[in-house]
Fold each of these.
Amino acid sequence: MSNLGQLIEIPTHRDERGSLSVAEIGGVLPFVVRRAYWIHGTKPGVSRGFHAHRKLNQFCVCVSGSARFLLEDAKGRQEVVLDRPDRGLFVGTGVWHEMHDLTQDCVLLVLADGEYDESDYLRNRKDMGSA
Ligand code: T46
């Protein structure tokens, strides 16, 4: 199977109060974070994404609920379900990604290594080779 998105266990401190997960440089974060955004309140049956990025790298965590990622590049496809706040998915440049089956309680946190830039989006699968 193709390994387009890297699943990463996030160090988590668990005690009698609950849990605290940490993503930091030198730990699980492979880049300096320049932007954070989160997707929530997704309507039932709605899918999102459907693009790749030319330069952007991202680290995605479902801090609540779950979502199914479909990842694709010229070499293959991979499906990943994110359903734990202590596990992240690294999605690098040039990887087509779609998010499906977001639960109503899904809060999908995304940490990115760049600011928002519409020109970084590849929205046609046929342009994937040019990333
Ligand atoms: C991605 C997946 C995982 C901004 O103005 N600033 C931002 O930083 C972002 C991320 C979005 N927007 C605006 C652009 C659109 O008008 O928010 C609106 C919704 O964004 P979009 O349709 O791109 O959302 P998704 O869920 O399809 O994709 C998002 C990210 O845009 C994308 O980079 O990799 O989540």
Amino acid sequence: MSGAETFYVTTPIYYVNDKPHIGHAYTTLACDVLARFKRLDGFDVKFLTGTDEHGQKVEKSAETAGMAPLALADMNSANFRELARILNCSNDDFIRTTEPRHLAACQALWTALVDKGEIYLGAYEGWYSVRDEAFYAEDELVAGPGGTKLAPTGAPVEWVKEPSYFFRLSAWQDRLLKWYEDNLDCVGPQARRNEVISFVKGGLQDLSVSRTSFKWGIPVPGDEAHIMYVWLDALTNYITAVGYPDTSGDFARYWPNVLHMVGKDIVRFHAVFWPAFLMAADLPPPKRVFAHGWWTNEGQKISKSVGNVIDPLSLIETYGLDQVRYFLLREVPFGNDGDFSHRAMMGRMNSELANDYGNLVQRVLSMIGKNCGGQVPEHGPATDEDREMLDAAHGLLDKVRTAMDRQLYHEALEAIWVVIRAANGYVDRQGPWTLKKTDPPRMGTVLWTLAETIRSLALLTQPFMPTSSGRILDQLGIPEAERGFESFGAAHGLRSGTVLPAPQGVFPRFVEEVAG
Ligand code: MSP
């Protein structure tokens, strides 16, 4: 892999106070699809996920559960690790903030910030939300029931007064604004970028980066009464995992060519605080932060108190893993909010996967199985329509790559489906079942054109639906070594005479159980 361009992609690290839900699964899947795409496209990829285990929120949850914080973290971190496995994620690493490598990285980053004069001792007096693990200014709060004050997120806040170290965030306003201006792609989508810029333009206050009123966290080097602010601790995971404080090796290899995928609620931490911490420590800021939207459940906000939390495992059991992977990335323009409904899930599963894609593959492969002796057919001279079909298929990689580089998964899938639908139209117009009687060589050419189209489609759907696409490629006799995008295109077209296994359906329909 040496010499290949690198691509580093990260999920947020998940709080261990809770079980995994659809929101976690969504971010992790989006990263997995990108990591797989980039690997197939020849990049040297690192894909990181993990758990955020320190802070007051986890400490309190542990207390409520009657457990030691580390015991709660061990239990829930294992659930997140298992979720990544069940989602068929290809993460190269899974980081826990309670690991020794992370303690070393946080303390080194802290020391670097102190050495640069970016951290000073003071006292914090103001609002804090444990649920958000965030400080809020008075003017950000909103009115809650009974005259109480709430964070803008609706989370409860409490008044905190304690000695604290501060990071000189106020000094970074202009340099951050310059960073956004010089790097048009550093925050996406555009709406989030605008939001971040206007927040920074509104003025930045120094940020409290240590707490003294609880213990569950990373001690401040040289002043152990202080625990590092959990967000400084958590954000550092992204460089811990590439070996920081050692800046040779993986750090030099992957940093800062990184994409931090996050939910829209945590953009400020990633696109304001994190680049400021890094620049202040003389380290390059990340290349890109992309924020996706939030899911609702059948039109309703997802919340534990409503009891409508979507468990990714039960979704997978009901609809199938690749179907869920496809749905989540197809249903909603990535970056927007979206709604999960059984109806929409079933609709896409049946019309797009079973009818459009599944039928195409099934029809073509079973015709080849029956009429071409189970071998990739010979193909004669191509007609204009054949060429048009193949050009559409072979032109897909560029389109899909452009969409993926902007995290526009829905556009990538739509481009693929345009070709799937075109291929179904081509089958109908060419009528290979009639050609079988009237012109067998022409039938061979039509079926070869279709099989080559399916090869192109299946190569490109691998990142989204790895198992199903792999099964399609198996049925086309494509060896593992020829499934990367270097094998995409006319120069690597299907070889006539390749013996194919018996075709099998890949995308089952969802059949509603009828009571009685
Ligand atoms: N621990 C922090 C992240 C630290 S990163 C250095 C955290 N953890 S979290 O577990 O609360 O949330 C993780 C992600 O889940 C966030 O990106 C959040 O946006 C996402 N989601 C939570 N609920 C969601 C939905 N209903 N829909 C989509 N994503 C949502 O924040």
Amino acid sequence: MPLRCAVLASGQGSNFQALLDRKAAGDLHVEFVLLIGNNSVAGAFEKARSRGIPCFHLVPSQFSSEEGYCTKFLEILTEHRIDLIVLAGYMKKLPPGVVRAYHRRIVNIHPALLPAFGGKGMYGSHVHEAVIEYGAKLSGITVHFVDEEYDHGPIILQRAIGVLDSDDPHSLAERVLAVEHACYWQAIEAIAAGRIVIEGRRVMGVGEMKDENNG
Ligand code: GRF
């Protein structure tokens, strides 16, 4: 049985689109059965709706307590029999109860090489601004399991690209995003195929990356 994935997204959903394309191409063997987002006009919602994937708009302000928010989140995930939660540009912190319930079953993609340029406030263009301002010569992408700290869980795969002298945050973001699209599915496919072995913080079994994009 293919893994049943929930995608959580806040933005345009280009990573979600790249995953859907990989599935359509026959490279990625999972089912995308649910979309949860905190912004119902986000592009990701449109992509899901047009494919008949159930969508839920969930934000803490809809609930009188953090507990109610978490309970609803878990209820939706359980109802849809979710095996794996895929964060694809999801800008909200997940309720800790969800993180605990889906231990090592939540993956995220971060647009830099963790543990550098991660943590609270390091999202979107802030990441690329920080990389350039620091003068780092390499950036890239990190796919990792999610734990209760921002950008902290065990790393599944990373891919580096060079920062060019001519880069500004926008040009760097564009090249990094292309690498995200080329790589995220490979981590998810390794999980789906049961190839992943976790020992402490070490995640093994992703194998050789398919080198389609050198940044
Ligand atoms: C990506 O850079 C991702 O790494 C970050 O948010 C961005 C989302 O882009 N977490 P998209 O919505 O998938 O196009």
